[in-house]
Amino acid sequence: MPLIMGMSMLLACQFAGELLAKGLLLPIPGPVIGMVILLVALLVRGKVPSCLRLAGEGLLRYLTLLFVPAGVGLMVHFELIGADLWPIAVTLLVSTAVTLTVTAWVLERLQRRSGGKGGRVEENA
Amino acid sequence: MNVASFDQLWVYLSGNPLLSLLATLLVFALAVRINRAVGGTPLLHPVTLSIAMLIMLLLLVDMDYATYFEGAQFIHFLLGPATVALAIPLYDHRQRVYRLLWPLLLACGAGVLTAVSTTIGLAMLLGADPKTLLSLAPRSVTSPIAMGIAEQIGGIPSLAAGLVLLTGSIGCALGPTILRLLRITDPAVQGFTMGLSAHGFGTAHAFARMGAVAGAFSGLAMGLSGLVTAFLLPLITGLLGVG
Do A81 and B152 lie within an 8 Å CB cutoff? Predict the structure, then answer.
């Protein structure tokens, strides 16, 4: 039963998220709103029910697998991608590398500064 | 005893969702083994490897994507609840998120601006087709958001989804090396960077290779950058006069 309860909680949040997204015509996908709903619920409740943890962490452990079916969909776009191959390849490679560098550098800098002021304490909660 | 011919069996099997579901799981398991055997290099990421192997397999047996997806959709469906489940690690590490709130928000803004401006700038410079350009623009956010944005600014949603996936694979391949070159060891920073630059792929990679703290921050970055991009990108393309 715990797995069923946990899965139901996740699906209920997703369902509520989908309803909100469709109802308010938001450009944000339902599951992302569902994530916010679950986060707020957890903050209100003050702890993670063990059944939810069981289902949720089970799914997150195999998150990589869940992207495979959508990824195979690339085969449908071979022609479109082939037509603009070089611009696409160069743009994706360079832009991703620059984005990774900028984000990491900015966050590392800002974190070190705010950590220096407040006295950085590591916790593993 | 009568035995059905192979052709008849194949007609039955290829129309049955069971086959593509099983093939997806087996190919993924094989990809994980191959990746482990070559020392876990991110250049042969299990996801990228599985996708490549499955595409080759489908082309080989001449099965179209719609037929394949009939079986694979059962795996695909779990992406929704898994996205919702990202709230759990986020809740577990809420104290660190509170403490780093401003750095995280600023880094998110800087990252999204970099992603969007370098993408549009480079694609324009290299002479990409306007349709391609507008499909490329939202490439660094998770595919459902990217598809929505692409449609809104005049790109091709399904092409945008494909480019998002390529971005994810490239991010997973480049990320660990870039983080090492920048000497970044904090799992929170590593995870946030992966989630912002490579959305769900980066988040999955962070969970699998960098631990729960990195995974939590990666999920946060994915959601946050998706929201920021959804609001910023239509304004930017409007300002630049593309589309």
Answer: no
Coil, strand, or helix at residue B142?
coil
A57 & A1 share domain = yes
Range of the domain at A13: 1-66
ipTM over 0.90: no
The residue length of chain B stands at: 243
Q: ∠B179-B183-B224 over CA atoms, to 5°?
A: 45
Total number of domains in chain A: 2
Question: Could you state, in order of their start, the residue ranges of all structural domains in chain B?
Answer: 6-77, 84-240
Q: pLDDT digit string (tens) for B214-236? A: 998 998 898 888 878 877 887 78
| Interior angle at CA B112, CA B107 and CA B117, nearest 5 | 130
Q: How far is B63 from chain A (nearest CA, A)?
A: 11
Q: How many CB pairs under 8 A join A and B?
A: 314
Looking at CA atoms only, how far is residue A1 from chain B in angstroms?
18
* Angle at B35 (CA atoms; ends B33, B36), nearest 5 degrees: 65
